[in-house]
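User: I'm writing a short report section on ligand binding and want a predicted complex to refer to. Could you take this sequence and zinc ion and write out the structure as tokens? A short remark afterwards would be nice.
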Amino acid sequence: MTYRLPYRKPIESIPYDEFYSALEPNHAPDGTFSGVAVGDGWYRLVMDLNQELTEKYPNYSISQVKEKFGDLRYYTQGLDEEGEKMVSLAARDATKTCERCSRAGDLRYANFYEVLCWWDAIATVVNNARDRSFNRKKAKARERAKNAS
Ligand SMILES: [Zn+2]
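Assistant: Sure. The structure tokens for the complex follow:
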């Protein structure tokens, strides 16, 4: 068994179902909607953005929400320049918000680019190292078992 460092719990714990339902009325029609997938540290930020946009652009729709290279990607239809600016401002806030716990974070490279606070960055690096060592030991044990039989 490997011991893994726990990641910090988000300041505000929002279940995925609640996050998903909040955005659901704005999902683009089937076939053009390809999902929402960000860490729960960003749930509140994304839900607030969606609410602000919905008030101003009731017919706007979401094609996809995801994280890529540590950036929030919020793809929409039906926004004007001002709406796009609201999206950029939220994306800028996301570059300073830990994607795991929503505390202050920075873009860091652990196993890939992510916006993480110090604690979650350290936990990620330590857990990756433990996983690699565990997998090496497991592979060796398998090899020994194979040779013994
Ligand atoms: Zn964090």
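A remark for your report: The radius of gyration is 19 Å. The beta strands are 36-37, 61-68, 71-77, 106-109, 113-116.
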